[in-house]
TrEMBL record:
<dbReference type="InterPro" id="IPR038941">
    <property type="entry name" value="At4g14100-like"/>
</dbReference>
<keyword id="KW-0808">Transferase</keyword>
<protein>
    <submittedName>
        <fullName>Transferase</fullName>
    </submittedName>
</protein>
<keyword id="KW-0732">Signal</keyword>
<dbReference type="GO" id="GO:0016740">
    <property type="term" value="F:transferase activity"/>
</dbReference>
<feature type="signal peptide">
    <location>
        <begin position="1"/>
        <end position="28"/>
    </location>
</feature>
């Protein structure tokens, strides 16, 4: 701005820049959209070792349950079913009839599990302009700036996941949430090698157990 510009005397310029500085410093950072109470997503995942998986994610908070149905490329299909009472079942539905269950008091992710995440600015990902947050050095979360839908997340295990669908309100019918009978036969379980939970699901348990700040 030129000093001798009569339309914008110096004092007004100073005033305007002060106002914009104040507005700029108080502008709230974007907040991640809370998860819808119920949704279905198909995710394409790639582990750090290059293992490709498709994850059918059924998030159902009102019913206190969360399902990851994971198809390994040309391999096993694994069912990871978590209940909010802390019980989780991890099984196959093939002839191997393997199941492991465990109790973990943290329960399933809350819709506001991203509260308190660190905002890292905007980045382009998979062709979408995204706001990016990081939580607890465990998960990096990319959300479409305009639609607020999740686009991509990555984990410190090296696993990355692309959200291919995001169907808000879609619920998996009840019978599909029934763990198979061999999950409840203890003698049967002891004879079989326990299934290894994918590292990423263990990471999400850690995210779940982080206390969320109640008031900011
Ligand atoms: C999966 O990840 C590995 C390791 O980062 C990479 O080499 C490979 O190209 C990825 N595969 C796909 C299909 O993106
Ligand atoms: C939690 O709920 C599931 C599903 O209703 C049930 O199978 C499981 O036994 C429950 N676990 C506990 C510890 O109550």
């Amino acid at each position: 701005m030129e000093a001798n510009n009569s339309l914008f005397p110096k004092s007004i310029c100073l005033y305007l820049s002060l106002i914009s500085a104040v507005i700029g410093s108080t502008q709230p950072q974007p907040q991640p959209q809370p998860w819808p109470l119920q949704f279905h997503s198909i995710l394409v995942m790639n582990s750090s070792k290059g293992l490709l998986q498709i994850d059918d994610l059924w998030y159902d908070f009102p019913n206190g349950r969360n399902f990851n149905i994971i198809q390994n490329q040309l391999g096993r299909k694994l069912y990871s079913l978590e209940w909010n009472n802390g019980t989780s079942y991890y099984y196959t539905l093939d002839s191997d009839k393997v199941c492991s269950s465990k109790h973990d008091p943290v329960g399933i992710l809350r819709p506001n599990w991203l509260d308190g995440a660190n905002y890292l600015g905007q980045k382009n990902k998979d062709g979408f302009l995204c706001n990016v947050w990081e939580k607890a050095d465990i998960v990096w979360y990319y959300e479409d700036v305009i639609t607020k839908r999740p686009v991509y997340w990555s984990f410190n295990t090296g696993t990355i996941a692309h959200f291919m669908t995001f169907e808000v309100g879609r619920v998996l019918e009840d019978p599909n949430w029934q763990a198979p009978v061999y999950c409840f036969e203890e003698a049967n379980q002891q004879k079989k090698p326990a299934l290894e939970l994918p590292a990423t699901l263990n990471m999400m348990r850690q995210v779940q157990s982080i206390p969320i700040p109640t008031v900011l």
